[in-house]
Amino acid sequence: MRERRLAYPTLLLLLLAAPVSAQRVETGFLDRTVTVAGQSYRYQVYVPADYPTKAGWPVILFLHGAGERGTDGLLQTTVGLGPAIRREPRHFPAIVVFPQVPPDSQWVGAPAEMALAALRQTMSEFHVEPTRVYLTGLSMGGHGAWYLAYRHPELFAAVAPICGWVEDVPQFRGSVPVVPAESGAAVPALARRLAKTPIWIFHGEMDAVVPVTGSREPAGALKAVSTDVRYTEYLGLNHNSWDAVYASDEFTQWLFAQKRR
Fold this sequence. Notes:
Elements: H1 2-22, E1 28-36, E2 39-47, E3 57-63, H2 81-87, E4 95-98, H3 110-125, E5 128-138, H4 140-151, E6 158-162, H5 186-193, E7 199-204, H6 213-225, E8 229-234, H7 242-246, H8 249-257
Parallel strand pairs: 3-4, 3-5, 5-6, 6-7, 7-8
Antiparallel strand pairs: 1-2, 2-4
Helix pairs in contact: 5-6
C-alpha cells in the first residue's frame, strides 16, 4: 500500500509536466533544410521570442544578394534583414524565411523554386496567416523578388524590391529573365501583371553596382497602371540602401498593414 500511495504524486507530477514540455517551441534563428528535385538546401527561419503567445503570424520571405551565396545556410542572415532583426527584434513581429542560393547561382529557375519550397515548408511548420505573406530582397535578391512576384502574384500580400532590376544589368547577364520573352516588353508586362499587388521599391541614387534605372523604370510603369505602388530613391546613397529600408518604421508599418484580398 505504501508503494502505491507514493506512486500517485509521482504520476500527477508527470501528467502536469507533460503539457509544458509539449508547448515548448524553439525561437530565434533556426536551422532547416528543404529538398527540391532530389537536392537538399539549407536555410534559416527566424521565430520571434513571443511566438507561443499568438495564433497567427505574418511571414516574410527574404532573398539575399550575390555576396551571401553559398551552402553554409548561415551567410544569408548576415546582411540586410537578418542584422536588422538582431538589432531590433520587436521591429519585425513575423516569421522570416532566409533561403540561400548556391554559389554561382541567382534567384531564378531551381533556386527560386527552392525559396518557394522553404516558404511553404515554413508555413506548414508554424502558425501563420496565409493572407499576410511578404516578399523582399536586396540587389540580386531584389531581382529575385521581381522574378518570384511576377510568377506568383497571388501568393504575396506585398513586395519590396531593394536596389534590384527587371531587365539585364551587365554583371548579371545571361540570367533567366524576370518576364518571359513571349510576354512582350519586360517592364510594361511586369506592370500589368502586378498592377493589383502593393509594392514599395527602393534604390540609392548613386548606386554604382546596380543602375538606379533598374528601379526607376518599373516604378514608373507601375505608377501608370496602379495606385498602390511607392518608390523611394535615397539621395546620395550608393548600393547599400537596405540598411535604411529595414530600419524604417514607416516601411515596417506599411508592410505589416498589407493583407492579400
